[in-house]
Amino acid sequence: MSDFKQRRAEWGGRSFLALLWLLHWLPLPLLAAFGRALGEWVLWPLARSRRRIVLTNLRLCFPDMDDAARRRLGREHLGWLMRSMLERSLLLYASPARLARLIQVEGDLTQFTQHPDTSAMWMLPHFVALDFIAPPLTFGQQRSMVSIYQTQRNPVMDDALRRVRLRLGSDTLLVDRSQGVRPVVRAIHKGAVFINASDMDFGPQDSAFVPFFGVAANTLLSPARLAASLKLRVQILVVEMLPRGRGYRLHVHEMPPGFDDPDPVRATAAWHQWLEARIREMPAQYYWVHRRFKTRPEGEARFY
């Protein structure tokens, strides 16, 4: 990236953060309505490349849905997505007390957070409000955590995203994806809980093609391998954005049946089956703008 483009990107990042600082003062229902309208009526018609990705994913995952229904779902998805982007202003700037009022927890997090002798992993599927797991995990943090982090190209936004992940809990290690899993394993051996968001296409390394909604999806096998080799207890955390700005609900689920299979491909297939069921419960809130099926088996045509 040239110096000019770098400066322009950094200026844009700072301007966006200034906007988020202003927006975080709004009541959440008003902020939610603004974000939804922006996503459905501005982003949907203008962001053509993102719209194509969303519609391609929906066509592959919901082949029985007609085109009009998929377009309605895609438009709704971009409304939730824009909401999540603007409501990250709360994670950056709102007080801990305000965040505590807005986030409900259904399930028991304490069996991991308060028991350092338990080797554990939290799996975080990519629903649009994923980052809102940070406050419940770090309020009164009693043990360390480790997470794999994808460095952002814009340094201003990279710093902001790191602050979102670390703001309320200082004892969290972010491992850059380029470092591999060895730092993660060392941290787990020292008592850290592994926070893992792996339901994306990260390329062919340590991956296999595992069915996802009936389509071969390039998927990391390391979560299943780590869970088996380190005998990790597993919980899955799903964050739901509530309608009309009523807040957020963190659902704590136990390990899905079959994820303890010693074969990592079968274990990952069980994880996908479980995830598909959760996505069908709130399909508009899954992260459909990601090219989930970008990597294809040899000789197969590309989808995007």
From TrEMBL:
Q: Keyword Transferase, does the record have it?
A: yes
Q: Which residues form the signal peptide?
A: none
The domain of life is Bacteria
- A Pfam family per the record: Lip_A_acyltrans
Q: Where in the cell is it found?
A: Cell inner membrane
Keyword Membrane listed? The answer is: yes
GO MF assignments: acyltransferase activity
Q: What residue ranges carry the coiled-coil annotation? A: none
Keyword set for this entry? Acyltransferase, Cell inner membrane, Cell membrane, Membrane, Transferase
Look up the record and give one Gene Ontology term from the biological process aspect.
glycolipid biosynthetic process
Q: What is this protein called?
A: Lipid A biosynthesis acyltransferase
